[in-house]
Amino acid sequence: MFSVIIPLYNKELSVKNTILSVLDQTYQDFEIIVVNDGSTDKSAEIVADIKDSRIIVYNKVNGGVSSARNFGINKAKYGWIAFLDGDDLWKPNHLQIVNEMINQFPHERLFATSFNYSDNRNVKRIQRNNKFTMIDNYFEESLNEVLVWTSVMVINKTCLDNLEIIFREDLYLGEDIELWHRLLNLYKLIKASDVTAIYKLDAENRSNSKKENIHRSILSKLNLSNANKYENKWNKKFIRIKLKQYLKRRHWYNAFYLIMKYNFKIL
Questions:
Q1: Is residue 226 scored above 90 in pLDDT?
Q2: How far apart are CA 202 and CA 204, in angstroms?
């Protein structure tokens, strides 16, 4: 029922636990599509040592995470696409909870559970009365809670088949946010209060200190005039957060770029 897409690039310390967290699911109807995006470490060898017929590995020349995810989506044989990055973890009930949501909301196409960070930081959440909630205005509610994140998103494949572009391969930062926002302007989100995933902050290839190429970031593509009211507010909030980060890290070029591009509208 689920095609689990795992992009893989140099995650030899993490990928085994990531895949095992899928194999340990209480709901067992899935395939695992691992797209090895030109890894130069032992990641592919480690995956090959995990013996399960549901694991399918594809090797490709490095093209970035968007390219890897798009490749995996094209190879998926099931109707529901679940995303999991090569260093994050699912709790055993993740797919079971998603399956319950699908059964309760059979006409909906976008689903997300909740997650915690690996450093156990406090996560701000809106208190809801029901286990599963249809989010009426995603952008309004996302001003107060991080509602979506790649490794808790599950999407009906028909939504992606109807898109000319899925993950934008010209973006290397925020490519997932860009896709979620396009989809969330078309479909409702069903949100579960259950925490079923762990966002690993200390895994390989993640650095908060390295400078980002802002020209290949969603930050260079945001629209502050044509978006709906709450999407516009979300965009401004996101830009302000990133601006503060750039100033704190002394990434002067990126900070100056944001201020000039958005004509001080974010201040």
A1: no
A2: 7
Q: What angle do CA 200, 201, 206 make, to 5 degrees?
A: 115
Closest CA to 37 of 6, 63, 72: 63
Structure-block tokens of residue 197: 């995933």
Whole-number pLDDT of residue 138 = 95
pTM tops 0.85 = yes
pLDDT of residue 266: 65
- 173: which strand partners? 217
Residue 127's pLDDT is what? 86
Residue 112 is predicted with a pLDDT of: 98
What is the topology classification, in CATH, of domain 2-199?
Spore Coat Polysaccharide Biosynthesis Protein SpsA; Chain A (3.90.550)
Question: Rg of the chain over CA atoms, in angstroms?
Answer: 18
In the chain, residues under CATH classification 3.90.550.10 are 2-199
Tokens of 17: 């636990």
Give 137: exposed, middle or buried? Use CB within 10 Å, 0-12, 13-18, 19+. middle
Mean pLDDT across 206-230: 82
Whether pLDDT at 64 is above 80: yes
- E strand or H helix at 196: strand 189-199
φ and ψ of 162, to 5 deg: -85, -5
DSSP code at position 211: P
Alpha carbon distance 178, 136 (integer Å): 19
